[in-house]
Structure formats: structure tokens, C-alpha cells
Design a protein that fits this description.
The chain is of the alpha/beta class. It has two domains: 4-123, Rossmann fold, CATH 3.40.50.20; 134-268, Cytidine Deaminase, domain 2 (3-Layer(aba) Sandwich). It has nine helices and twelve strands. It has a five-stranded parallel β-sheet with strand order 3-2-1-4-5, sandwiched between helices. Helix 1 (14-24) links the parallel strand 1 and strand 2 (28-34). Helix 7 (189-200) runs parallel beside helix 8 (225-233). The protein is globular and about 60 Å long. The termini are far apart.
């Protein structure tokens, strides 16, 4: 019997890649797309597809149950700030909000996963169909010499990134000369890097991590060519990412461009 998998699809190519890999593994895909975010191609790839606004939690649950979904994954970005622009909410969404202890990313998504579980739908590891994109623990640009000052900045950034992650503030930090220049909150990685460059100029070390004991069911760090373009424009010195828990899209192009622009690209454990 063919296994049915639900996909709650946000922004980016990740839901599409997950859908394709699920098909390759012989699974039937039932996609609940966040209205205005999911790629149009996903509608053609999915076996069953429907759109829902962020406040239609009850609609998503009924859709999944009607199509026999017992396991689902949440993949693709929904901006944290979207919580301030949900104007229409169904009864289940209101009950979900009543269970949320605060509006941090971890609290919102963990409560959402528990809500689905109580409805008989298990939320899966969001990287289940994306293992090939997870970074390894290595220096992807060994041709770039890492001088002592840069090595110190990398270690400093790594330590501070885990500090903000533990507080559930953000995943990204930018440092220069062992000083913290910018910390990510709701604005996202790309805007954080741009803001840091406006303050400190070229030579930034950017570190991005998950959280201590990160729940792989949601909010896994993701990087791609858009972020690399910003790093190039800002003339960053290094981009340090958590190995085994960060998804890197377009890996060959990312490595090539980092090498050409003298940006250390590293997966760190």
C-alpha cells in the first residue's frame, strides 16, 4: 500500500524538492500550501494540493484527514512577523493560540506540532526528504588561507551565535574584530547581514546555527544563492554554518562563488 505524506508548504523551493523526493521514494503527497507563499509548480507536482491562509488551521487538518494523512512535515519559510498580519482565524487556530505560552518561534511551532499530534497527525523531521542538502562538518573552501585574526573571529562568532540561539532570539550573528555587530531577530539572515555591513563595512564573519537541542521538525537553518549574493556584496570574510542541521541549496554554486570571492565557507560541529 502506498504511504501518504502531508506537506505543509511555505516559501522557497524546499517543499518542491521534498515533494519530488517523496515521489521518488514511492509516496503519495498531499500538499497544504500557505496561500501566497508556496511555489506555483508545487500544485503540478503534488498528488493532491490545496491552498490555505495562515489562520485556517482547521481547514488544513480536515484536508489532511480527508486524504488519509497520518504523517506530515512543515517545510518552507513563513516569516515570523506574519503573526502580526493574520486577520481571519478559524476555531482551531484560536484554540491553538490559546495554548501558546509566548510568540517565540520555538513556542509557536512546538505548540503547532503538538496540536497536529492531538489530531492524529504526526509532524515529521522537516529534512526527511532533504538529507543530501545537509552540510558536512568541513571547510568547503580549503584554498583560502585562514589567518589568526579571522580564526579568532570565527570562534568568537560561533560562541556568540549559540548564545543568542539559546535565548531563542535568532539564528544568525555578524561579528568583526571580535565584536558583535548585528544579531538576527525577526528580520531574517539576509537583512541582518546587510545591516551589519552598513555598520562595520567589509570583513564580517557571519555565523548561523540552529538552537541547543534543536527540534528538526521545524525552522531548520537554510542558506542559498540569495544569501551568498549578499555576502559577496558586503565583502564578508567568512560564512560559518552548523553542520548536520543546516540545509545548503545549490551547493556547487555556493562553494564556487565563495571561493572566487575569498569568503571562507565552513560547516562546523
Amino acid at each position: 500500500m502506498t504511504e501518504t505524506v502531508g506537506i505543509i508548504a511555505g516559501e522557497s523551493v524546499l517543499p518542491l524538492l521534498s515533494c519530488r523526493e517523496a515521489h521518488r521514494q514511492g509516496k503519495k503527497t498531499i500538499v497544504a500550501a500557505v496561500k501566497g507563499l508556496a511555489l506555483p509548480e508545487l500544485a503540478r507536482e503534488a498528488d493532491v494540493w490545496a491552498e490555505f491562509s495562515l489562520g485556517q488551521l482547521g481547514g488544513v487538518i480536515r484536508f489532511f484527514k480527508w486524504n488519509g494523512v497520518r504523517r506530515a512535515l512543515m517545510i518552507g519559510r513563513v516569516k515570523h512577523a506574519a503573526i502580526f498580519s493574520i486577520w481571519t482565524m478559524d476555531g482551531k487556530f484560536l484554540r491553538f493560540l490559546a495554548k501558546v505560552k509566548d510568540k517565540t518561534t520555538t513556542s509557536l511551532l512546538a505548540t503547532l506540532a503538538d496540536f497536529f499530534s492531538n489530531e492524529g497527525i504526526e509532524i515529521m523531521d522537516s529534512t526527511f526528504f532533504l538529507k543530501e542538502y545537509l552540510l558536512e562538518a568541513k571547510n568547503y573552501t580549503p584554498q583560502i588561507r585562514i589567518k589568526d585574526a579571522l580564526a579568532w573571529d570565527i570562534e568568537f562568532a560561533w560562541e556568540k551565535a549559540w548564545g543568542i540561539a539559546a535565548l531563542d532570539i535568532g539564528q544568525t550573528i555578524c561579528v568583526k574584530n571580535r565584536a558583535v555587530v548585528a544579531v538576527e531577530a525577526m528580520e531574517g539572515t539576509d537583512r541582518t547581514i546587510t545591516r551589519a555591513a552598513e555598520i562595520a563595512g567589509p570583513g564580517l564573519v557571519v555565523a548561523k546555527v540552529s538552537r541547543p537541542g534543536h527540534d528538526m521538525r521545524f525552522d531548520v537553518p537554510v542558506v542559498g544563492l540569495k544569501t551568498m549574493g549578499i555576502l559577496e556584496e558586503c565583502r564578508a570574510a567568512a560564512f560559518v554554518l552548523e553542520a548536520k542541521k543546516t540545509l545548503m541549496l545549490d551547493q556547487a554554486d555556493m562553494i564556487d562563488r565563495a571561493g572566487k570571492k575569498n569568503i571562507v565557507l565552513m560547516g562546523k560541529a
